[in-house]
Each structure stands twice: as C-alpha cells, then as structure tokens.
Amino acid sequence: MLRLRLGGELHERLRFVLSATGINGGPARRATKAGLYNYHRVFQDIDPSAEFEEAYFDMDLPPVDLRLGLQKIAWGKLDRTQPNDLFNPYRYHDYFLLEQEENKIGVPAARIGAALPQLSWLPEDGRITVAWAPNYVPFRFPLPGERWFPPAAQSLDRFHVPDGVIVLPSGRSLPAFDIPVAFGVREAGLPPRRLENSGLGVRVSGFLAGFDHAMYFYYGYDIAPAFRLLADVFAQRDAASPLGASLAARATLEPVFRHIEAWGADTAYAFGPVTVRAEGAFVRGRAFTRDLRLLVSDPTPLLDQADEIVAAILRGAAKVPVDLGPSFVERDAVEWGIGVDYTYRGWLALLQVNQTDVLDNDVDLLIHDIETRILANIRKSFLRDRLQSQLVALQGIESAYTLLRPRLTLALTDRVQLRGGYLAIAGSRHTVLGQYKANDEGFLQLRVSF
Predict the structure, then answer these.
(1) E strand or H helix at 312
(2) What is the mean pLDDT of residues 268-288?
(3) Quick check: 303 pLDDT over 80?
C-alpha cells in the first residue's frame, strides 16, 4: 500500500489537501482488472488499484470557514462505532484489519462552519456546522468468492425438490430432484442527482458546565449496507424430462439504497485521568438485511409457488420469477453507546458498550432486535514510547460473537514502523460478525513515511 498525502497554502486564507492510496495484492485475490475505484458501484475488485480518498480546499472566510471537495467527515465521540457518523460510507474489503478512517470512502461535499454568538443562554464556544453532499456515494463490497464477501449473502448451489411436490396436470407427480442454483450480483441504479437525493447534516456543539456537547441532524441515504435477493427459475426444453423441460435457477444479490432521517446527540466529560463519553441517535427508516442463506434454503416459498411455476413452464415460459419473501425490512432504530477510558502510567484502557434497538420488528434479521456489543481497547507503551502494544476485543452479547486483535508496533526510526499482530473471529455463522469466523489472519506490516 502506498499512501500519498499532499497539502499546501495557496493563499493565507486558502489551502488544499490531496490524499491518494495505491494497493497491490491484499484481500482482492480474484480481481480481473486494474485501475481506479469509482464512486458509483458497490461490487468492485480491482488489483492493482488506486483511489483518491480526499481532495478538498479549505477556505477561511471570517466569520465562517468553508471546505469544498472530496472529504471525510468524522462526527461523534465514541470509539470505532459512532451512531451520528452518517456521512461517509465504508469499504468492506478488509474492514476489521484497517482503522476506521482508512475504511471510510470520501464523498464530494461542502462543509461550512461558524461560531455561535456568545449569549448567556447559549453554550460556551458554540459552533454550528452544516455539511451537504450533492449526490450519493454507495458503500463498497468485494465480489463473490473473495475472502470478505459476506457468507450471509451467499446462495446455496443446489435446491432440493422433495418427492411428490410437483404434480403435472395429468395428475402424475414427479420424483425428487435437484435444481442447480447459480449465484451472482448486480448493481442497482444510484439515486438520480436531484436535490431531494442529496445528503444534509447539521451539527451544533459547545461547552456547558464542563461537558462537551453536540446535537446532530442528518437526512440522506443510509451508509449502512443492505441487500435484496432475487430468484428466477429457468426452463429449457428437454423432451426426455417428464416436465418437458430441464430446470435451473439463479439467485441475484442487489444492493438497497434507502433514505433515513436521524436525530442524535453526544457528550463527553473529563475528570482527572478518566473520560466519560456517551452518544445516541434515533434513525428513521433504516434497512436491515435478513440472513439471506435462510431465504434460499427454506423450501416453503418455492414449493408454495410450484403450481404457478409449472403452469408457466408448460405454457412455454423460459423464465419464471420466484418470490422468496422480504430479504430486508425498513425499521426505525435507536443506536446508543457509552464509554469510559482511563490513563495510568503509560496505560490507556477503554471500555465501551454499544447497543442497537430495532423497533417494532417481527421478522428474523441478521441481528437481534436488541444487539449489544462490548468493546475493550487496551494500550501500553514501552521503551520510551518506541514499542506500543494494543489489544482490541469485541464481544456481542445476544449474538455471541467475539473479535480479538492483539498487535505490537515498533518504531525502528522516526520514519519506519514495524507492526505485527493477529485477527481472530469466533461465533455463530448466522451473526453479522461470526459469519467471518473462517477469516482469521496474522499480519506483518512495514510502514515507511517520507
């Protein structure tokens, strides 16, 4: 990986920043082309690849400051999971190994900030920030067959039809047989570039009685990934078959883009070596994906439609769509978390609890209606800060999954760092994180800055 970051002043009130990344090898093992990642496709595997992460101008125009261009916006106060950080989508090619900011995808946006007037009824150092993204940039997923393609979105390769389920008009029932199932993905058209499809975020912050507060509003497309699973049965004339045709099926995965509205707030307070942070948001209309493997393996929808499918094939239809039931649902949700970190003689220990509450839901989802996660992040420096150890641990309570990522970072010189560690994942394969339990990996990185 080669990361290039340039910045400079064009004027005393105008500066620019350009950040680009190039990658050769890594998790994209089956890429068929090289080039630039684009901002309008979800499923992308490119190797070697390049990407512009940020490219913006900062303008200081008192009493406001303005940032224009491709940028990453970081809102919220919690560690790694911020309910109010809703502007930048993420790439999921090696999500658990990279840092949060490295996984973010820059979006074209305009951000303007201004200080609030110093009035008695307003908090100290009050500030309002407005961010506007004129068009939607989708999240990014690897293609099927890659290491980090979600197993919960993968179809079965064969569907079994039991004996006697399919009955011909003559009254004859067919013996048991298997239908081969092909699986693929396809892009969904992005929302048209219209004003109502843009993203708008507002942040109002300030200090009050020693607390660092902020309130948020967001309206736009959700950055959280969701998918729709479509299925079709194909018939090809076959005189040797009792049905008069041989059958095959295809399952197609398609991303889902949905508007959300979110209202949120956060606060932080430090006393001595202890800092307490809390954050929460109410999200209206979030799309939650089901475990799509269960949709394909459940024979009920196909068998319930067997008579209609057979009738269509006997009429000469070459393709018959199958309704598998809802592959995602839209629900309101509450996201919240609270964290405490403590520093002592070179140690930094953080403990954080996050929870997602899916409201008024009666459908089995990939997550539970109440999904609680506990995050621990422990760091300690040695050898006059040249050697840093870190352990990140994540535990899902209701879903019973575990992630551990210990690592050591040694600063060989001011410009050269050597890092090694291990990523371990465990849990049920029917959970958001546990589905990746076969993807444990050790890593060794050499970072050179110049």
Answers:
(1) helix 306-314
(2) 95
(3) no
Identify the CA nearest to 296 among candidates 320, 324, 321: 324
Q: Is 202 helix (H, G, I), strand (E, B) or coil?
A: strand
Q: Are strands 245-255 and 177-185 parallel, antiparallel or unpaired?
A: parallel
| 72 half-sphere exposure, CB direction, 13 A CA radius | 17
What is each CA distance from 286 to 196, 220, 238, in whole angstroms?
17, 11, 46
The answer to whether the CB of 188 falls within 8 A of the CB of 254 is yes
Judge whether 420 and 445 are in contact, CB under 8 Å.
yes
H helix runs in 16-125, sequence order: 100-103
In angstroms, the CA 28 to CA 316 distance is 42
Order of strands across the sheet that contains 227-237: 158-161, 177-185, 245-255, 227-237, 319-322
Residue 415: how many other CB atoms lie within 10 Å: 10
Q: Is 346 exposed, middle or buried (0-12, 13-18, 19+ CB in 10 A)?
A: exposed
Q: What is the mean pLDDT of residues 327-353?
A: 94
User: Strands 259-271, 211-221: parallel, antiparallel or unpaired by DSSP?
Assistant: antiparallel
Lowest mean pLDDT among 102-106, 152-156, 268-272: 152-156
> At CA 403, angle to CA 398 and CA 406, rounded to 5?
150
- For β-strands 14-23 and 35-36, DSSP reports them as unpaired
Say which residue the tokens 């002592």 belong to: 344
Give the percent of the chain with pLDDT over 90: 62
191, amino acid identity: P
* Contact (Cβ atoms closer than 8 angstroms) between residue 166 and residue 306: yes
Q: What's the pLDDT score for residue 208?
A: 87
The tens digit of pLDDT for each residue in 399-416 reads 999 999 999 999 999 889
